[in-house]
Amino acid sequence: MGLTRRSMFSGVGVGTIAILAGCSGSDVGGIGGGLTVDDTSAETTTFGNVVLSVAVSNTSGSSKSDALIGQVDMTGGDTYTERRDITVDGEQSNTYELEFDIDFSESLSASEFEYSARIES
What we know:
The chain is mainly β. It has one helix at 104-109; strands spanning 7-12, 15-20, 26-27, 35-44, 50-58, 64-74, 79-88, 93-100, 113-120. Strand 4 (35-44) and strand 5 form a beta hairpin. The two termini are 14 Å apart.
């Protein structure tokens, strides 16, 4: 799985949170194609939660189903994981959102986090 680092800044009601980017490009499927994570981005909500937006494509000619796993690692704090079962039609792509309910104390005190997404069979 290849990781790409990006830097983003996102406004939160009372301040600014620096976001360290996570992953893009997770391949599953081998011969005949399968589901691929093409892009991952993150936003913070006014309540300090994190929403990952994950673009997934299917390189095969038939519908594929797998689990989309997202992870947010708060710098100096907890790691949060969300799982969602997804299905993408053959030769199509779709964008999915994963919302992470960040502990209130971490959402106010943490200034950075890393995030990633991957497909798991």
